[in-house]
Every structure is written in C-alpha cells, then in structure tokens.
Amino acid sequence: MDYKQELITTIHDLGGDLDRLETRLTELSQHHPTAVLIPSLYEELERPALATIRDHLSQCPFVNRVVICLYADSVEQYRRAVDFFAPLPQPTWVLWENGPAITAILQFLADQGLDLLQFRGKGRAVWLGLGVASLDAVAIALHDADITTYDRTYPLKLLYPLLEQEFGIAFCKAYYARIGHQRLHGRVTRLFVTPLITSLMEVFGYRDYLRYLNAYRYPLSGEFALTSDLALNTRIPSNWGLEVGLLAEVYRNVALKRVAQVDLGIFEHKHQTLGQSTNVGLQKMCRDILQSILRTLTETEQVVIGPDHIRSLRIKFRREAQNLARQYFVDARFNHLDYDRHQEEVTIETFEQVIVSAGQQYLDDPTGTQIPDWTRALAVNPDLREQLLDAVLSDMAQARSVLPSPEPPTPALS
User: Fold this and answer.
1) Is residue 1 classed exposed, middle or buried when 0-12, 13-18 and 19+ CB atoms within 10 A define those classes?
2) pLDDT of amino acid 413
C-alpha cells in the first residue's frame, strides 16, 4: 500500500469512509460555501461525458454553486446550454464567455488599459469563472468537461481538504492513474514532464522550484481546488501551459505546508493528437510547458539560461525518457496492459525535438502570456465581478424566456 509523503501533503485513497467525509463536508459547506467551476466548449454538451458530470453533480449536497464558463458560437447554442444544466439542483450560473454582454464588459476594461480580449481559450474561461465563483464561495473546485470516469467523489476529495480548518490547506491538486482501454495514457506527463524535471535538476542543480514540481504526482492534471482569496491573487496562464503555470503561481503565493495533492483513482478523458508541429496538439502543449518552467526558473531561482543549457537538456532528456519507457513497459506488462514500446520511443523522439525548437523560441523571447490577477482587474473596476454576474443572470433569463415550456402533466385517470 502506498502512503509515501512528498514535499507537499499527499492525500492517499486508503479505503476510508467517503460517506463520512461527504456528511462532514456537507456540514462544513453550510457555513463555508463551495463552488464547482467547469470551463467548456459547446461541443462538450454533445458528448456523453458532460451529461455524466452533470448527473453526478446533482447528487453532491456539499456543492453549493455550479459555474459553467461556456464558449458558444450562437445564441441558440447558449440557450441549449442553459437548458442542459437546468436539471441541476444547485444554483447554476452559465457564463457565456464570448457572448455580447461579457464581451462588452471586457471591452470597457480594454478601454481603461487592461485588455483581456487578447486572451483566448481555457485560461480566460478559468479567469472569468474564478471571478464570479469567488463572490459567494469560500472554496472553488475546477475540472474539465470531458472526464468520462467522473463521479461525486471527485469534487468531494478536492474540496474537503480546503474546508477542514485543522488542515490549513489553500490549494489541492488531483493526481490519478490515466488508464483506459487496457492502455497507459497521459503521454505528456509520463514521457515529457517527468523526465524533463529530472533532466532540469541535472542541468541546473537541485533547485527548490524543481523539487516542488517533482513532488506533484500528476502536475498536468486539470482538476484542482483553491480558496477564493488565492483565486483572486493568482495570475492565470493563457496558453497550453496553464496547469504547470498555475503551479508556479501557487509556488509564489502559498507556503508549501498549505499545498496538497489528492488521489482520485482511475481517471480518463478525451485524448489530444501528437500534432505535426509545435503549434498544434501535444507538441504545442509541451512547448508551452517547457517555456513556462524555464521562465519560472529564471523568475524564482535567478537561473540564467543559454543555448548550451538547452543542448544539454536535450541530451539528458533523451536518456531519462528512454529509461522511463523501459520501466513503463515492465509495469504495463505486469498489469496485462497493452504497451507499444516502439510508439513510446517515437513519441519521446518527437518531444526531444520540441525541447530544441521551444528552447530556442524561449531564448529569443522569454516573455510569457499570463492574465493579470483579479486584484489588478478590481483596481480598474471594483464592481467588475458584480457586473459580470449581472450579465450572466440577464443572459440566462433571456435564454429561459425562449426555451420550450414543459408539457403540462397528463391528468390522472379516475
């Protein structure tokens, strides 16, 4: 049984009584409200995973609010989304992040010199969602909309450590086993980030930030929970390095004793393609991750990075990744999992080339793409969160006004 602790607190699933935890969390949430935030594209509504998530959330009495940050291309899509989440018993806000009302508010900010319209994707959705969720939630759990193994224990495990005051936890990150269809998944974590961190330690030494990153068992998980005050003081990366960039923000803002990771068990969601260049697919993700880590090393550890470091990193990465591939092969074979060792090696070679090109891009332009934290935005407009909420409520009211009315019940036969 695994009970090893890391530099940060590791919360294992040792077979404890989750029903007892649910009762306790439900009690705590009556005085310390919670929210679940889900950034989502409209397309996710047409896949089965999000319906499963919705149905399990409806059975979570410890979740006081649900916030959906939706990217939709039309009024009709937004209306369907409002209808889709209507069965939830919790008060639910469906924020149309690219709709005209939200866009108008962001345009006003841009006119004041804070241009958030330049940011796109999950980063902006997370930023907007954290803003409105923090209005009445003490703890906010965030997860993606494509989780196929979702159940009520996910938000339970993420939120409980934050509300139990004796723990003193401000940030809780998920870790899990990415296994599906009898195969190991999680290629970027297994074959890129893990050997990358080890290689960086060999190139730059045993730096505190690298030790911190290495303590996370799944640093790229998109599932985490944080307190509302941390949410307001955290810069959100706007590229595909969001997860590892967020960990850098936590490293800056939170004492390690207030950081935890929790085991969610077996976990699966949809997969990205490897991509044909560093501008798409998993290669783009690896590029943004590497550049985020290099930037944080310079910012927090005063590391000066040059071309020789990138060349050394490439060489050490290849050896570390190949060693890991052999270990994954043994683990997979022992557990009767399919393991294509040749394809794993091909993926490693592709990631190695990402280090070369992404490293050079970083040397040419080390600046990042982070959305300013909420305290900066509130300095420009103190009522910004309330204005966003008013826009959400107005959008939802208009959507409901044109939704089909429910059919009247059939009279009972006498």
Assistant:
1) exposed
2) 45
pLDDT of residue 109 exceeding 80, the answer is yes
Least confident of 49-63, 128-142, 170-184: 170-184
Mean pLDDT over 343-366 rounds to 94
| pTM given for the model | 0.93
Tallying the residues shown for the chain, one arrives at 414
Query: Can you give the residue ranges of every domain in the chain?
Result: 9-401
Class of domain 9-401: alpha beta
Residue 406 has pLDDT above 70, yes or no: no
